[in-house]
Amino acid sequence: MNFGSLRLDLLHGGDLRLDGSALFGVIPKVLWERRFPADDRNRIRVAAHCLLVRGADFTALVEAGVGDKWDEETRERRSIAAGPSLAEQLARIGVRPDQVDALVLSRLQSDHAGGATVRGEGCAVRLFPRATLYVQSSELDRARAPGERERASYEPENWEPYAEAGRLETVDGEREIRPGVRVTPLAGQAAGMQGVRIDSEGRTAFFFADAVPTSAHVPIPWLMEEPLYPIELIQNKKRWIDQAAREGWLCLFEHDPDVPWGRIVDGIDGQRRVYPLPAAQREFP
Ligand SMILES: [Zn+2]
Predict the structure, then answer these.
(1) Strand 2-3 to 6-19 pairing
(2) CB within 5 A of ion ligand 1: which residues?
């Protein structure tokens, strides 16, 4: 999609199945199951969209998806579908992994960071050898010393190769990491989660990460499972969703299998809903 002077491309970072409660927390199933049909094990389809942002002199990737380092057992258990790799998808749009100079991760859990590295000889190696990885410092601290609940979803092989190569930069708070590409703290699901705001020629796009994982999570009380910081999450959702609706931003829903991006609009009935845009949309007006 042409977005002012920038180019935005969606990449598929994965296709998996998660328990419905992982995505909808305490929201009653009757309210979500029509749009997100659950299988016989109560699992729903979840995507892991990534966003490539290209400017005149930078190439930035937001999120790395689930990656393909999984063993068969895990792949089976989480129903991670095999699909074209990030490198293959980049090749289709004429981008080599070594052209990516910034990798922004909203958090370091494996469904966001897994694709940052690939299997090398006996160890994981960086898929993007020239990229600097940007993450909030509090998220890195958490990932290196996780609590019991999160231990299984933080895998150091996804980010430590960047740190070892001197290619990991921590951010404290808001920062413009490339012209028009700004990371912003989005505490809620975790303390150190960050969103990404992209501005070009009067247009704004916002990558909500797990704060608004699907287009169904636009209503403020719709939260993913047990956020660690629910009050902050609600405050953040209000602030960013209100502004996005008012100013007609392009909104990205990382885990939505059907609506990766769209506009949040206020209906005349007072209901807020999402007007989806096709994944292959060419222009953001
Ligand atoms: Zn997530």
Answers:
(1) antiparallel
(2) 210
Taking the C-alpha atoms of residue 218 and residue 274, their distance in angstroms, rounded to an integer, is 8
CA distance linking residue 107 with residue 259, whole number of Å: 21
Q: How confident is the model at residue 251 (pLDDT cuts 50, 70, 90)?
A: very high
pTM of the full structure: 0.96
Give 146 Cα–ligand 1 centroid separation in angstroms.
16
Which helix (H) or strand (E) is 89 found in, with range? helix 86-92
139 Cα: distance to centroid of ligand 1 (angstroms): 14
Q: Report whether CATH 3.60.15.10 matches the domain 2-276.
A: yes
**Distance in Å, CA 209 to ligand 1 centroid:** 7
What mean pLDDT is reported for the chain?
94
The domain limits of the chain are 2-276
Nearest to 87 by CA among 41, 124, 46, 128: 128
Q: What are phi and psi of 121, to 5 degrees?
A: -75, 100
